[in-house]
Structure formats: structure tokens, C-alpha cells
From TrEMBL:
Protein name as catalogued: Calcium-dependent protein kinase
GO MF entry, a single one: protein serine/threonine kinase activity
Family listed: Belongs to the protein kinase superfamily. Ser/Thr protein kinase family. CDPK subfamily.
Renumbered residue ranges of the record's region Disordered: 1-28
PROSITE patterns, per database record: EF_HAND_1, EF_HAND_2, PROTEIN_KINASE_DOM
UniProtKB keywords: ATP-binding, Kinase, Nucleotide-binding, Serine/threonine-protein kinase, Transferase
PANTHER family per UniProt: SERINE/THREONINE-PROTEIN KINASE
All residue ranges annotated as the Protein kinase domain in the record: 78-329
Upper lineage: Eukaryota, Sar, Alveolata, Ciliophora, Intramacronucleata
Cofactor: Mg(2+)
Entry annotated with the keyword Ubl conjugation: no
Length: 514
């Protein structure tokens, strides 16, 4: 299908990786020019006060641009010929970002969509950017050309639940399966809170991130096309009511699909899948569970939850929040791993100004290693006691109180942290906000990362970042050109204001007091 890169092409891509640029001469020239500016001219360029309510939307992930108006080959190369998964519409590859060297997964499919469908699909992808949960795979980039569509997402290498099912998963102790499935439900619960129906929850759509930590795929290859059909790509996970004519998808259908996953985890086999598609659909509609399955072979708590989730009457199924309260999950104890380092980083985090937070958010997306993100995700899940995908003041207070033993001190710390980190003022810490505060800044702010990130923002290679260069990383914001100029002013030194951020100012903004 023409989407594989030749060895020669890959070698060229590697050789053409951008090197660290020595911008010292240009920076010195810029400084001299700035110093020659007349005092009255510099005074006239002083920024007006910035409307903080406007800038908040830059931290909302749905405003961070997913579409790249350039070629996929400009940013990534395929690291190996090996195809991870073959699909009817396309293939999946491991790719590497040419600048950062970070691995990603690229889904490459034939472009058979019209321009209107491309725009519709892009709007759909952009809406998914608001998803901010440690158990949901992160989307990074989207590209298209005349021949192909390219979707780039978070790299995972631990296989999926379907692969694990045939090895050891269904023979594990109940507490382990409960822990695994709790993560699945937590992710679905978060989606449903955002009024998003997944429609395609399957065993192969749940991947292993690290040990027993899971990630839910938002988009499969077939979704590139099935978005226009509202159709679950794996028929065996569809709820019986979804086969009705003119059916309108609702959240209960996701509950059914998740219930099938739990059935497979506990019994080691699918309840309805048969030799043909037609027989499978018939079994689902008639609730004909395969006769060779001993339904009494699992404990009562698991049986109760499964029975309720795959109730043929969709109105009788519990919602995700209700599912998480079932006795089946009572055996789970939150990991006892130490989270002192993360709490200390959050405690010491200084907000400084909004531009620094914006840059930190973007830098984390493009440069944070998978290993650190997974580790922070584990910490986040430990603090998130009720598994709703966000951290409340009460949940964070419990951690600080356990650490300090001082009730008043713990409350003061939590109040200060929320004042610094609750950017959208919704009284919760969301995963992206938590990442910003708890990531290892020493590792993130190494010289190579800083230079690579600056070069990514500096699209015209002028050794300065302008408002126009920064705003291309955001989508559908309400900020005017004047507002963007004020954002840039937050990173400039008062004596050198020229509506652009130099590398020296960029470094100072990010690393001062770190």
C-alpha cells in the first residue's frame, strides 16, 4: 500500500535529524539591536494586563492542535520493517520522532475519504484531545496526503489483554483481575463523564502499559472509516440492542462491552463468539451463552457484576460509577509504593506565570519519556481513591496528612497547591495539571531537550519565538492577535521587549529557580 519506508529512506531520515544549533552569535546580535532601541520606544511596547480567563483555554487539551499541516515524513521515520498489526484498511508501525527520538505508534491507512470527511474526522480527533486520563492512550499528531492518513499516538509495548488472556490473565487471583478491570472501568467512567461514548471497547483495544497498568485505545484502525457508520468494528462485543434498526448509541452499550471483557478475564473464553458472524450476532440477540462454559466456576462477587453488566435489558445495567462500587472490587488495596518524591515536587512547584505553564504542558507532551509518564500515572491512580480520573482536595489532603501527621499543615499545603495548579478552577487536579507539577524538571530541562523544544517552536529558524509561531500549536482559541502578543510578553525581559522570545529568555523562563 506504499506506506512502508525503504531502508535507504530510513537511513536518510536518521542522518537528517536536526542537530543542536549554536545560536550564540545571533542571540548576541539580537541583544545589541535591542539595546540600541530608544527608551521611549521600549516604553511604548510595555504589555497591557492579560485577561487570565482568556488564557485558561490554552491549558484545556482540546485546544492543543492535533493536525500538522505538513508531511508525516517530515516529523517521523519508521524504525523497523516489522508490522505490528495488519488491518483491512491499513497497518500499524513503530515510528520515531526525528527530533526527540521518542517512540510513537503510527496508524497508516489508505486515504479514501472526501475532503468533507477529512474535516469531520479532524474535528472528531480534536474533540478527543480533551481526554486527560492516565488509563487512556494519548493522541499526538494527525497527517494526511493524497494517498494515506496518518494517526500518531502513545507508544505501548506490553501487548494487549487478548494476548494476555491466552497466557496467564484468567488464571490470576481475583484481586489481580479486579485491579486490572478497575482500570478499564475507571477509563470508561471518565469518558462517560465527558459525555463520550466509546462504541468500540474490546479485549484487543486494552493494552498493557507497564506490568498490570492498562491503557484504553480511543481509536482503532477501523474507526478511520467507521466513524461515519457508528459501527463497532468487532461484532462480538456489541450489545444486543445495537443491532436494532435506527439504534442511537448510549452509554449502556459500553457497559455491555466492558462486561464481556470481564467475562473473558474470569472464564478465559468469550460467551457469544461463534464460528460465523451470523451465529455470533444470533447468540448475542438471544443471550445464548456457550453451553460448555461452567458459569459456577467463578466467585459470586464476579458473577454478580458480570450478570448485571451484560443484562439483555440495557435499562437495567448499572452505570460505570455504580459498577465501581460492587463488592468485586473491595479486595483491592491501593499500591503501597512511596509517592514522597511526587508529593515533594508538587509541594515545591511555583506557577510563576501562565506562559511557563503553557510551555511546560507542550514540552511534556513532546518530550516526556514513556517510563516517567507511566510512573506518574501510577502515583496519580494511587491518590485518585474514587477512580474518577481526577484528584479532589480531600484525596490530596489524605496523602499529605499521612505524610506530615499535621492536619492544619496538610490543609494549608493542599489549598496552596490547588491555587497554583487548578488552572481551570474546577476544584480538581486533572492528569495534565498533575504531570506539570510532579514531573522531574531536572531531567526534562536538560540542554538537548531545551534546544530541541525551542527549535520546534521557532518554525522560521530566526532564533526567536513569535506570537504567530506559538499560536499554531493551538486550535480554535478565542485569543485575538493582541492577546497572543500579551502571552509572548510574559516571557520577555522588560528591558528587551520586541514581541519575541529569545533563546536566553526561553531558558530563563523555564529553568529559573529550578
Amino acid at each position: 500500500m506504499g506506506c512502508q519506508a525503504s531502508k535507504k529512506q530510513r537511513k536518510t531520515s536518521r542522518d537528517n535529524r536536526p542537530s543542536l544549533l549554536d545560536g550564540s552569535n545571533d542571540l548576541q546580535k539580537q541583544k545589541l539591536i535591542t539595546l540600541e532601541t530608544k527608551p521611549e520606544e521600549r516604553k511604548s511596547k510595555q504589555p497591557k494586563s492579560l485577561d487570565k480567563n482568556k488564557i485558561v483555554e490554552l491549558f484545556q487539551a482540546e485546544h492543543q492542535q492535533i493536525y500538522r499541516n505538513k508531511k508525516f515524513q517530515h516529523d517521523y521515520f519508521i524504525t523497523e520493517e516489522k508490522v505490528l498489526i495488519n488491518g483491512f484498511q491499513g497497518k500499524i508501525f513503530v515510528v520515531e520522532n526525528k527530533v526527540t527520538g521518542l517512540k510513537r505508534i503510527a496508524k497508516i491507512a489508505r486515504n479514501v475519504l472526501t475532503n468533507n470527511q477529512i474535516n469531520e474526522y479532524l474535528d472528531y480527533l480534536q474533540s478527543l484531545k480533551k481526554i486527560d486520563h492516565p488509563n487512556i492512550i494519548k493522541l499526538f499528531d494527525f497527517y494526511h496526503d493524497d494517498k494515506h492518513i496518518y494517526l500518531v499516538e502513545e507508544y505501548t509495548d506490553g501487548g494487549d489483554l487478548y494476548q494476555r488472556l491466552n497466557t496467564e490473565m484468567h488464571s490470576q487471583e481475583k484481586i489481580h483481575v479486579a485491579y486490572v478491570f478497575q482500570q478499564v472501568l475507571s477509563a470508561i467512567n471518565y469518558l462517560h463523564q465527558q459525555d463520550i461514548i466509546h462504541k468500540n471497547i474490546t479485549m484487543s483495544g486494552v493494552v498493557i502499559a507497564q506490568k498490570s497498568n492498562l491503557l484504553i485505545k480511543l481509536i482503532g484502525l477501523d474507526d478511520l472509516y467507521n466513524i461515519f457508520q457508528d459501527f463497532n468494528s468487532d461484532i462480538s462485543y456489541r450489545a444486543p440492542e445495537t443491532f436494532a434498526e435506527n439504534y442511537q448509541w448510549n452509554k449502556a452499550a459500553d457497559i455491555w462491552s466492558a462486561g464481556i471483557i470481564l467475562f473473558e478475564l474470569m472464564y478465559g473464553t468469550h460467551p457469544f463468539k461463534d464460528q460465523t458472524r451470523q451465529l455470533t450476532v444470533q447468540n448475542i440477540k438471544r443471550n445464548n451463552i456457550k453451553e460448555d462454559i461452567d458459569l459456577n466456576s467463578i466467585n459470586d462477587d464476579a458473577f454478580k457484576l458480570i450478570s448485571d453488566m451484560i443484562n439483555p435489558d440495557h435499562k437495567m445495567r448499572p452505570n460505570t460509577k455504580e459498577c465501581l462500587k460492587y463488592k468485586f472490587f473491595k479486595t483491592i488495596r491501593k499500591s503501597s509504593m512511596k509517592i514522597t518524591s511526587a508529593l515533594l515536587r508538587i509541594k515545591e512547584f511555583q506557577r510563576k506565570n501562565e506562559l511557563r505553564l503553557i510551555l511546560l504542558s507542550l514540552m511534556i507532551e513532546y518530550l516526556m519519556s514513556k517510563e516517567e509518564r507511566d510512573k506518574i500515572a501510577q502515583t496519580f491512580q494511587k491518590i485518585d481513591i474514587n477512580n474518577d480520573g481526577k484528584i479532589s482536595k480531600t484525596e490530596l489532603y489524605q496523602q499529605y496528612f499521612e505524610s506530615s501527621g499535621n492536619e492544619n499543615l496538610a490543609r494549608q499545603e493542599v489549598d496552596r497547591i490547588f491555587q497554583q495548579l487548578d488552572i481551570n478552577k474546577n476544584q480538581f487536579l486533572e492528569f495534565n495539571e498533575f504531570l506539570i507539577a510532579s514531573c522531574n524538571k531536572t531531567a526534562l530541562f536538560n540542554e538537548e531537550n531545551l534546544m530541541n523544544f525551542f527549535n520546534k517552536l521557532d518554525r522560521d529558524h530566526s532564533k526567536q519565538i513569535s506570537a504567530n509561531e506559538l499560536k499554531v500549536f493551538f486550535y480554535n482559541t478565542k485569543l485575538s492577535q493582541s492577546d497572543w502578543q500579551q502571552v509572548i510578553h510574559l516571557g520577555e525581559k522588560k528591558e528587551e521587549m520586541n514581541n519575541k522570545i529569545s533563546y536566553e529568555e526561553f531558558i530563563s523562563l523555564l529553568t529559573e529557580n529550578e
